[in-house]
Description:
The structure is a single chain. The chain is mainly β and 206 residues long. Helices cover 14% and strands 36% of the residues. The chain has one helix and 13 strands, in the order αβββββββββββββ. The strands form two sheets. Strands 1, 3, 4, 6, 9, 10, 11 and 13 form an eight-stranded antiparallel β-sheet that branches. It has a five-stranded antiparallel β-sheet with strand order 2-5-12-7-8, with no helix packed on it. The chain is globular. 32% of the residues are buried.
Amino acid sequence: MKTLTNSRIQSLAVLASFSLLLYSANSLAQLQSDRIGGAFSLFNGQDTSAWIQSGNANWYPITDGIAANQGAGLLIGKFPFSDFQIQFNYWAGKSTQFSIYIHCADPNYISSKTALEVNLASPSFQKYGPGSVVGLLDAASGLSTANKWNTVFISSTANQITVTLNGITMADNVNYFNLENGPFAIRFGGGDLKISNFSATIPGRW
């Protein structure tokens, strides 16, 4: 059996690091190739290559998006964002648990304490209804998102978050602190969920 020399090991480590960087760059390039105007898609309709899966949810691609109807878990983005605008459509069943995290400070430990969490499902999450920012703003509108397609727009600029759900402003430039940069994460807690046309825009493109 051949023994690897230190120089050989170092060469292999450099090659592995370069391959990882190239893969990440190619993933971002693929996302940006789906750009519409100043926005770019975060799902390519084929796989979840721009996201890291955690949990046992059965994520599968649909036209222009992603879906799940078994298990539970997170999809954690690979790329950090600071100021941004995102918009997407989603269909959630009556019992579906679904929220999106933004500015995830620690991708290895995601919660409403380490990120901003926007609940988007009709079952209230810790008493926060659809469009609420958990721990920050309870949007008590009585709006139902169950068993229909919904459209959400979220903007984060200069430590202020705005959430618009089905044309209704749920949070209007609400101040937050200590969370300035980080990836998105999608939380699926069970039920039936479809997400489509998930796009992001960053400053300089809006």
